[in-house]
């Protein structure tokens, strides 16, 4: 029999290898939506693309790892969309301010022209 320490080392290496295999399998399908996991193929899923794993445990791990990555991706996309909305809102606000300032400038020009035109009346 192997000493306890060697068994632990073998187990750690096996877990690392399994994790690498899992990442390799999932990376090929990371842009896909995993719908569910089943220990056997149901009739309704026979025509669909399927991933098969050595054990049900690995299928469950892969499924939930994929779900977590999809959640992270969705959060990132949501944050990006919110940032774009905030930026658009700021741009619209700035455009409105510029328009308002241009209108005020035009009004002030007209008032200044009226003052210059009627300067002789104002001085009296």
Tell how many strands the DSSP assignment holds: 0
Q: Which radius of gyration do the C-alpha atoms yield?
A: 34 Å
Q: How would you spell out the order of helices and strands?
A: HHH
Structural class: mainly alpha
Portion in beta strands: under 5%
Instruction: Report the uncertain regions.
Output: none
| Outline type | rod-shaped
- Specify the number of helices: 3
Helix-residue proportion? over 70%
For the termini, the CA-CA separation is 117 Å
Largest sheet entry: none
Short description:
By secondary structure, this protein is mostly helical. Helices cover about 75% and strands about 0% of the residues.
Observed structural traits:
3 helices; mainly alpha; single chain; 124 residues
Write the layout of secondary structure elements.
Blueprint: H1 4-28, H2 56-117, H3 119-123
Question: How would you describe what is shown here?
Answer:
The chain has about 120 residues and is mainly alpha-helical. Helix content is about 75%, strand content about 0%. The protein has helices at about 5-30, 55-115, 120-124. The chain contains 3 helices and no strands. The protein starts with a helix and ends with a helix.
């Amino acid at each position: 029999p192997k000493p306890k320490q060697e068994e632990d080392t073998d187990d750690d290496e096996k877990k690392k290898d399994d994790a690498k295999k899992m990442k390799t399998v999932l990376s090929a399908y990371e842009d896909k939506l995993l719908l569910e996991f089943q220990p056997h193929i149901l009739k309704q899923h026979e025509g669909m693309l399927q991933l098969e794993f050595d054990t049900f445990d690995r299928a469950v791990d892969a499924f939930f790892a994929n779900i977590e990555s999809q959640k992270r991706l969705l959060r990132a996309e949501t944050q990006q969309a919110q940032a774009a909305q905030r930026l658009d809102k700021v741009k619209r606000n700035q455009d409105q301010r510029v328009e308002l300032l241009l209108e005020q400038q035009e009004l002030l020009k007209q008032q200044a022209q009226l003052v210059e035109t009627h300067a002789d009346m104002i001085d009296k």
